[in-house]
Amino acid sequence: MASLFVRPFQTMDLKTLLKISRPGLWLVYVWLYMWPTGGHGELAKSFKFWLGLVYCILPLNLMVYGMNDMADLDVDAINDRKNNYVYGAKATKQQLSEVPSIIVLANGLPIILMAALTGEWVWYITWLLLALLVNVAYNRRPLILSRRGPWELPCMAAGNFLVPILSCKLNNLPLPPLGSWLFHLCMLWRTHIWFEIMDMYDDAKTDKRTLAVKVGHSSSCVLVLTLTSAEAAVAYYMLHCIPLALFSLSGVVIFLCVEVLPIPESLIPQDKTSKKMMSNVQSLGGILLLFYVWSSGVFVRSNN
């Protein structure tokens, strides 16, 4: 136990810790928390709502990406896009050894407060244990599913979907309808596989056998296009939302231009950093659209 929990902030500094939490990706968990609350503006007056939102901004991201950085120390060492506030820090082994203690403190205290406010200790402690278990399965041996494609996809989805479940419980809301879950599943998976495509050559140099590494570039591209098209279909036929469907179709066009079609580099940069930036711009633009759609309650109304 002593080797697992090292006293924090011996070598870890706040700047590195902030980079580990990926501020450039905070909006993802913010959205997953906000999604079930669509159309419920009255929650802005609730302390529990804001407690959950703050928890999903920093502590939860520290858990997810901190454990990921601990597992990917070998891959990150040769990844030139690291050491920033979007893709994470290039932390030392000693700094990463302090991360478990920070994760326990940063996540344990807010969850204990939620349990104390609601009186439902068993539910919130169980939720935290499940979140830790999913991240351990994804990042740590013997399972280390992040390196055993395609199992990283269901594991990643399970972890992400714990966030809207927490939001519903904390804010006393019903679970969203099936169409909402399917839309987000397609969006999460196609974005994840696209990121794997961008990293597949660095990953292949190590033992990180992601889905993209296993099936190759062409098959991975087909998967992304299929999932993005399915996302558009769900948005149109199940959520009855044309703006969302158009957003998904724009993802098909952007992906084709960046990864599939032989477009000159003078028109669209083909280096990995530029591809990542285009993917992030599309994702962030989509999240801004989602917040707009959120106000109309598209994701929480019945899919009739």
Helix-strand category: mainly alpha
- The topology string of helices and strands comes to HHHHHHHHHHHHHH
The residue ranges in which pLDDT falls below 50 over 5 or more consecutive positions are none
Give the termini distance in whole angstroms: 52 Å
Number of domains: 2
Q: Helix count? A: 14
The overall pLDDT average reads 87
Reported by name, the CATH topology of the largest domain is Tetracycline Repressor, domain 2
Q: Give the CATH level 1 class of the largest domain.
A: Mainly Alpha
- Total strands: the figure is 0
CATH architecture designation of the largest domain: Orthogonal Bundle
* Helical content band: 55-70%
Q: Major sheet, described briefly?
A: none
Indicate the radius of gyration in whole angstroms.
19 Å
Note the beta-strand portion: under 5%
What characteristic shape results from the CA principal axes?
globular
Subcellular location: Membrane
Protein name: UbiA prenyltransferase domain-containing protein 1
Membrane topology: Multi-pass membrane protein
Pfam family, one: UbiA
Description:
This protein is an all-alpha fold and 304 residues long. It has two domains: 12-175, Tetracycline Repressor, domain 2; 177-265. 67% of the residues lie in helices and 0% in strands. Pfam families: UbiA. It comes from Perkinsus olseni (Perkinsus atlanticus). InterPro entries: UbiA_prenyltransferase, UbiA_sf.
